[in-house]
Design goal:
Chain lengths: 116, 114
């Protein structure tokens, strides 16, 4: 089946420093799945941060960027300068978009703590 | 536009008890998903519907879990005879076919089985 791997369970970074959260995927039913980053801020529900549906393309939102790399099957999330408000749990996900609807396969999540 | 709503927000049960979770998707969204999220893990699909039809329930423990969406709008997820291993947050999400695969999530129901 499909799988998404996030190797870091928690990352601590100081404000204004750069951040990278690693994500690799494996999709068995389709060559080029749709890729997503979802985020849960403290006290809030899960929400979409960004998505990329075309291999080789980059998505961006709220200062975050992620590039769909089909060669390395990766979709790392990066931000050049984090703020305390970026403290949250970030989830990488894929959908195989087979048929007219498809569910998401999520990674285990990376908790980001930004220190003032 | 109202988001996905879920109730109750919290539930505490003894093993063997039953519980039902309710979800109201975003108006007009034809696809509805139920995910289970154990602590410190990512959400895992249980079942999803397009309109009132079940598309995939292969991950739903059918001996104790059931889910319905009778009119293609609201949905109910029920656990008969809960076990401690069912302790998790239950998330409902909805999407619109042709909407680019974006799912919108509700706040979740946190279940604790003692």
């Amino acid at each position: 089946g499909d799988s998404v791997t996030q190797t870091e369970g928690q990352v601590t970074v100081s404000e204004s420093k750069s951040l990278i959260i690693n994500c690799t995927y494996s999709a068995t039913s389709i060559a080029y799945p749709n890729l997503f980053w979802y985020v849960r801020y403290p006290g809030e529900g899960l929400q979409l941060l960004l998505k990329v549906i075309t291999a080789g393309q980059k998505g961006s939102s709220r200062g975050f960027e992620a590039t769909y790399n089909k060669e390395t099957t990766s979709f790392h999330l990066q931000k050049a300068s984090v703020q305390e408000s970026d403290s949250a749990v970030y989830y990488c996900a894929l959908s195989d978009h087979v048929g007219f609807a498809s569910a998401l396969t999520f990674g285990s999540g990376t908790k980001v703590i930004v220190l003032p | 536009e109202a988001g996905v709503t879920q109730s109750p927000r919290y539930a505490v049960l003894q093993e063997g008890q039953a519980v039902s979770f309710w979800c109201d998707p975003i108006s007009g969204h034809d696809t509805l998903y139920w995910y289970q999220q154990p602590r410190d893990q990512g959400p895992q699909l249980l079942v999803y519907f397009r309109d009132e039809a079940v598309i995939d329930n292969s991950q739903l423990p059918s001996d104790r879990f059931s889910a319905v969406r009778p009119k293609g709008t609201n949905s109910t997820l029920k656990i008969q005879s809960a076990k401690q291993g069912d302790t998790a947050t239950y998330l409902c999400a909805s999407s619109l076919t042709g909407g680019g695969d974006t799912q919108y999530f509700g706040p979740g129901t946190r279940l604790l089985v003692l």
